[in-house]
Amino acid sequence: MGLMPRTRLLAVVLLTAGLGWAATAADTGTFPSPDRPVAMIISPAYSNEETRDQHGEAERVMDRLGIRRGMRVADIGAGDGYYTVRLARRLGAGATLYAEDVNGKYLERLRRRLRREELSGVKVIHGQPRDPKLPRGAVDLAILAHVYHEIENPYEFFSRLRPSLAPGARVAIVDVDKSTGEHGTPPALLRCELAAVGYRQVDFTSIAPADGYLAVFVPPATPPGPAAIVPCRQ
After folding, report:
1. Whose CA is closest to 56, among 163, 213, 208?
2. What does each C-alpha distance from 230 to 34, 129, 226 come to in angstroms?
3. How far apart are CA 163 and CA 137, in angstroms?
4. Under DSSP, is residue 149 helix (H, G, I), strand (E, B) or coil?
5. Euclidean distance between CA atoms 121 and 136, whole angstroms
6. What is the rounded distance in angstroms from the CA atom of residue 121 to the CA atom of residue 45?
7. pTM of the predicted protein model
């Protein structure tokens, strides 16, 4: 094979550099902070599981999302595992299921619960406040239940989540219509903040008599860089 002409070689180098920049766009610059309160993490569970089951929360959410065998699901902010264990039973043996949380103590309690309930195969992930640390291209559906308002910086978090989402993936958020300082998220604020990083809402429904709503989003092909994000007001 002959030597590559110098001009062509330079073009290839520049193109490669450009691709490298695009692949790491989420890592450049500083993400703006949310222009509203961020709730503190105060518990690994929302309400109690008996009450939530009496109101059909998980079943309503999973049915609406069409959870079925073969789907690769991430329970982000898994806490005590209310959704994790119910997803594991719905998905069945051999499922690809990630249980992520930023609190190591919560995750250790979840590991013990999974052993106690003989639910094997759940991949427990210790994420970071601004990065869930999920494998690249490995998730068909990410569920965040009663946790969105506790995310330190949603703009950065959802930008860093994007590479973990497979083609056709969805992000499902369960929350209550309260201010973020009161451990909820107004639906209009949620839509605005996710739109700021390119996510588009495709479904929204109340989950009554359970608490709150279910909002479903699809991610952008490429999230905008930090400099392009305009924070939303509550």
Report:
1. 208
2. 9, 20, 9
3. 6
4. helix
5. 19
6. 22
7. 0.87
129 and 102 in contact (C-beta within 8 Å)? yes
Whether 194 contacts 158, CB under 8 Å: yes
Give the mean pLDDT of 12-39: 60
Give the other-Cβ count within 10 Å of 192's Cβ: 15
- Amino acid 12: pLDDT: 33
- CATH 1.10.1200.10 assigned to 47-220: no
Q: Are strands 122-126 and 139-145 parallel, antiparallel or unpaired?
A: unpaired
Measured at the alpha carbon of residue 36, what is the angle toward residues 31 and 232, in degrees to the nearest 5? 60
Question: What is the rounded average pLDDT of the residues 12-23?
Answer: 34
Tell me the three state secondary structure of residue 204: strand
pLDDT tens column, 189-234: 999 999 999 999 999 999 999 999 999 999 999 989 999 999 998 8
d(C-alpha 68, C-alpha 72), whole Å: 9
Q: Which two tokens stand for residue 60?
A: 């309503």
CA-based torsion, 91, 100, 233, 200: positive or negative: negative
Whole-number Å distance between alpha carbons of 234 and 223: 22
Residue 88 to residues 91, 133, 149, 174, Cα–Cα distance (Å): 5, 20, 25, 18
Sign of CA dihedral 223, 71, 176, 42: negative
